[in-house]
User: Which sequence fits this backbone?
């Protein structure tokens, strides 16, 4: 097993913090942009995702990931790219079904 130097560990720690920060930035700004129908906020969210991807690349380099680990990292990046839009669609569908269910209940009581 190869020893890891202090510089790699500190780079990995900073990159991991960036993953958390920019992941949250992507999710929050994507959601706020969709909620307020503001394309600029959605674009800020995508910029956060780009920064997240850069931090993940830096983390993978600092930890010397290879093979199946890199494939897993790529799979997780793709998953996080599509998660907020899918969650947004799910939320809209739930609220749409909830609204139609409530209108049916109101009509029954009239």
Assistant:
């Amino acid at each position: 097993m190869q020893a890891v130097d202090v510089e790699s560990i500190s780079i990995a720690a900073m990159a991991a913090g960036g993953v958390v920060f920019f992941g949250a930035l992507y999710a929050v700004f994507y959601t706020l942009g969709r909620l307020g129908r503001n394309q600029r906020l959605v674009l800020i969210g995508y910029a956060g995702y780009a920064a997240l991807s850069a931090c993940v690349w830096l983390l993978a380099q600092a930890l010397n990931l290879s093979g199946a680990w890199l494939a897993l990292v790529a799979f997780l990046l793709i998953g996080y790219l599509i998660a907020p839009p899918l969650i947004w669609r799910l939320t809209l569908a739930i609220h749409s079904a909830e609204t139609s269910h409530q209108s049916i209940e109101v009509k029954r009581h009239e």
